Amino acid sequence: MLEQKLKIDKIQRGTVIDHIDAGYALTILNLTGLDETNSLITIGVNVSSKKYGKKDIIKIENVFLDEVQMQQISILSSNATISLIENFEVIEKKKVEMPKIIKKLIVCETKTCISNSKKEPIDTEFLVLEKNPLKIQCVFCDRIYRLDEIKFKPRRKKSGKKVKQIIQL
Ligand SMILES: [Zn+2]
């Protein structure tokens, strides 16, 4: 059988997000706001992978991820790896790390949950019960969510417009 070579060019400097669960690349770009950069982004969707069967991969020139973006990726794809590239070489490679408690990034949909209080809203906190498949629990109202039930907090676009983000899988 012919081995399929990944047809994505190497980048000179920037970030490679590899081993993304197949089909999640576009969701990751949207959620992290990376789709708003002016940098060159190359995406591979349903790329053959020895380890995971199929995977997605994202390469972004001249962009390095912040902590929030890494957490968002870990929620959507706990096996993802992040490589930092300088002069076409990988200078650092790490697996995304899901925090034990996910703070602020996700909305709790229970109306009576204290995180939705109109008077004194507090930041949401979700305890990670299982990473893969993901299962998280609101620490305030105990409601349990699986990945396809999670609603991410809207992020502000650079223009200041609020964008509603509902992930539907
Ligand atoms: Zn709650």
List keywords for this structure.
169 residues, Alpha-Beta Plaits, SH3 type barrels, 5-stranded antiparallel beta sheet, 4-stranded antiparallel beta sheet, 2 helices, 11% helix, globular, binds zinc ion
Structure description:
This protein has 2 helices and 13 strands, in the order E-H-E-E-H-E-E-E-E-E-E-E-E-E-E. It is mostly beta strands and 169 residues long. It has 2 domains: 14-95, Aspartate carbamoyltransferase regulatory subunit, N-terminal domain (Alpha-Beta Plaits); 101-163, Aspartate carbamoyltransferase regulatory subunit, C-terminal domain (SH3 type barrels, Roll), CATH 2.30.30.20. The strands form 4 sheets. It has a 5-stranded antiparallel sheet with strand order 2-3-1-4-5, covered by helices on one side. A hairpin with a 3-residue loop joins strand 2 (41-49) and strand 3 (53-61). The longest helix is centred in the middle third of the chain and has 10 residues, at 67-76. It is globular, with a radius of gyration of 17 Å. The two termini are 33 Å apart. Bound molecules: zinc ion. Residues 108, 110, 113, 115, 138, 140-141, 143 line the site of zinc ion.
Concise overview:
With 169 residues, this protein is mainly β. Helices cover 11% and strands 38% of the residues. The mean pLDDT is 89.
